[in-house]
Predict the 3D structure of the following.
Amino acid sequence: MRDIPGLKIYLISLVLPCVTVAIPILSTSGFHAFFQQDILFAFFRKMLFVFAITVPFDIRDMDHDQKNNLKTIPLLVGDAKAKGIAVFALITYILLLFIQLFTSSGLDTRYFAALLLSAVISMFIIWQTNKIKNEYFYSLLLEGTMIIQCLLIIGASCF
């Protein structure tokens, strides 16, 4: 699997929304419910978010991946363009947020603001990525973006 360029990052980006969006909906509401507009928005937003925050881990591992002849996004396009791809994924995420806000009744403005802020924070953190950041940067900040998003959503639900 590691020999197929970029496959790992796409699998990670697909598994998390399956586990956190698709499976809960399928198990509680059935197959037809998954194809509702708001559920699809949530699924694809989650997929884009996870993809974006996973790219920097491939940037971190570039030396190791190059030694092992692995084809990752940063090795194929360079670390600067890889960061650009990650940011583009978050811009697409933001675009989906705006589309959902204006075309659906399922996204409250408080949650919209929380999700938008989490994307902006994540973009800033991704832009700070380079190969020489220490492990705390990746383990706490990058992985912490999901916790930040969760806390922002919880905070939005309190107001």
